Amino acid sequence: MAISKKIEGYMSKSSWIRKMFEQGEALRKQYGDGNVFDFTLGNPLPEPPEKVANTLRDLALRPPPGAHRYMSNAGYPGTRNAIAQALASELSMEFSANNVLMTCGAGGGLNVLLKALLDPGDEVIIIAPYFVEYLFYIDNHGGKAVTVNANSDFDLDVPAIANALTAQTKAVIICTPNNPTGVVYSQQTLTSLGIILAEHEQLHGTDVYLVSDEPYRKIVFDNKKCPSLFHSYHNSIMVTSHSKDLALPGERIGYVAISPNAKPQQALMDAMIFTNRTLGFVNAPATMQRVAEACQDVTVNIDFYQTKRDLLVAGLTGIGYQLVKPGGAFYLFPKCPIENDVEFINLALKKNVLLVPGSGFGTPGFFRIAYCTITDDMIERAMPAFKALYDECAR
């Protein structure tokens, strides 16, 4: 075998979304786009806000001197400062450019951070259901993933996290608003988690970092905001991207923000600047850094996603599906009407409905719906198929 046996095994575990996408391609060729209901990919349909296009146009016509040269591995000072000031205004905390590192999306940011934090054998707690790439990111840098299940409504099970903490725990990764459930963790929950992490640090004399993966941070419904971990725990780090809030997933622009209260502040930033370079990212894309600098005050139309959430929740619960109503992001994570989620997904395929099994997120018995790439009309036309699927499983 020419390729790594480890990678071969990991590829088989991470292929559910890709596998379903390929199934969808085959179905579309056979039945036509309008007759296939694809709920698999979290790839935003809306175009970026107009300010993004205007900024790109200005940069193309009037580029600043040296616009395409290397810059500091941390990113442009002006971009980092703009993000720091936006965070300071939003959170009433004293952020500076020295708290911000520009990265190649949130995925790049998580790898940069974990490389900077982990020694071989260090443990990182993740919450199931989880974004499956966390397993591979942690392994990339010699860490050990420790899985803790969320509670029955997909909120953080803080006592279970406390029980999973050991002297080897280096970080806890959460995702809010969550992929795949859409759950938004409350400030009270984050504060409770911060208390147990602080107690653990004192008991063992170690630093434990609370890392929040937040690419959906601005996609929150019902006129609410996403509570911040920075108000709940001193060693907090936010990793995010503009893939979702500015609809720029292909541009790979994001950042890591360290709490002003984290320790050791400068050593951690210096380590991430180093790993940003040595992992091969070198720096975040230059032009998109300028776009991010100019566009901290805009976002996509949140109503676009909230309308789809409401249509799906009403339609699916009216049929009989059990689910937790999402507070943000653009996913639903209903319970399968039969125990075997893979069997359920295969039954759905026969009705031209493409879904992702909960097993792919470490939580069998559920399935994920991504509603960012579909129209309202498609949701309504898919409901008879969802009902026929539910009725078939109920027999």
Question: Would you summarize the structure shown here?
Answer:
The protein has 395 residues and is an alpha/beta fold.
Let me know the largest β-sheet. 7 strands, mixed
The tally of structural domains comes to: 2
Strand content: 5-15%
Distance between the termini: 46 Å
Radius of gyration: 21 Å
- The fourth-level CATH homologous superfamily of the largest domain is Type I PLP-dependent aspartate aminotransferase-like (Major domain)
List the helices and strands and how they pair.
Blueprint: H1 5-13, H2 16-31, E1 37-38, H3 50-61, H4 77-91, E2 100-103, H5 105-117, E3 123-128, H6 133-140, E4 144-149, H7 158-164, E5 169-175, H8 187-204, E6 209-213, E7 236-241, E8 254-258, H9 265-278, H10 286-294, H11 302-319, E9 331-332, H12 341-349, E10 353-354, E11 356-357, E12 367-370, H13 376-394
Parallel strand pairs: 1-10, 3-4, 3-5, 5-6, 6-7
Antiparallel strand pairs: 2-8, 7-8, 9-12, 11-12
Helix pairs in contact: 3-10, 4-10, 5-9, 11-13
Overall description:
The protein has 395 residues and is an alpha/beta fold. The protein folds into two domains: 5-47 and 301-394, Aspartate Aminotransferase, domain 1 (Alpha-Beta Complex), CATH 3.90.1150.10; 50-294, 3-Layer(aba) Sandwich (Aspartate Aminotransferase, domain 2), CATH 3.40.640.10. It has 13 helices and twelve strands. The chain has a seven-stranded mixed sheet, with helices on both faces. Helix 3 packs across helix 10, helix 4 runs parallel beside helix 10 (286-294) and helix 5 (105-117) packs across helix 9 (265-278). It is globular, with a radius of gyration of 21 Å. 45% of the residues are buried.
